[in-house]
Every structure is written in structure tokens, then in C-alpha cells.
Request: fold
Amino acid sequence: MPKPPAPDSRLNLSPADWLAWFDGSCKPNPGACQIACILQGPDGQRITHTQAAGHGDSSDAEYQALILCLQLAQRHVAPSQSLRIHGDSQVVIDDVLARYGKTSALLAHYRERCLQLLSALANTQTACDLQWIPRHKNIEADQLMRAQS
Reply:
């Protein structure tokens, strides 16, 4: 299994870098999942994507939203640029980063996929950082996701 990414010392964000936000939810919990991602590029470009994501619980939805975000980053973030990804799921961010020395066995397949995508970005010299933010600071991704549900 790949190791979780260490904080990237190259990640001193400048106007030439990318930002991203992801969110996922399900109604009821568990229930139908909806996910959203926003990428904001250095030239002001915005890429948004939202989609249904099958059936699961809130952690399934949040992880699938992060995977979507990483897949979009692979297509749009140029090699050697930096990317900071924001999400309001402490569970998912902590699980990917293996904080506190443990990970969830139930979420292992999602974590493995995220680590593969992060590794692929690192192989293109793309510095990537995951950052937890409170829900009220993730309002745009949340609104995008809810508009599609």
C-alpha cells in the first residue's frame, strides 16, 4: 500500500497555483450520494463538476468527491504547479493522511485510490496538499453539490 503524502515543502502557494474544494453528501445517510468539486486555476479559470455517486454513507460520498477532485486535477493542473485541496470532511482528510497513526479498514479502497492519484500527481512534480476546512468555509462546493441533488 502506498504511503500517505507528507506535507510538501514546495507548497508555498503563489498566484500561479491551483486551489480546489470538494464535498459529498447522501440523503438519507446511508442513501443516494451526490458529489461536487471545484478547481480554480491561476488565470481565474474555474472547473466545476458534480454528479450522482451511487449509494453509500457520508464518508463514501466525501471520499468519492475527493477522488473526483484528484482526477480533475490530473487533467487540468500542469506539471510543476501546486495544488491545495480543501474539504470539510475531517474523517476523509485524516484517513488519507493517516493522521493519528490509523486508518479506516472500511474506507481502505477509497484511501488506496486517493494515494494512487496523489502519487501520479507527484510523479509530474505537482505539489499537492490536503487541508481540512470548516463546513462554513466550504459553502461553494456544498451549494454546487446541493443544486444538483
In short: DSSP finds four helices and five strands in the chain. The radius of gyration is 14 Å. The mean pLDDT is 90.
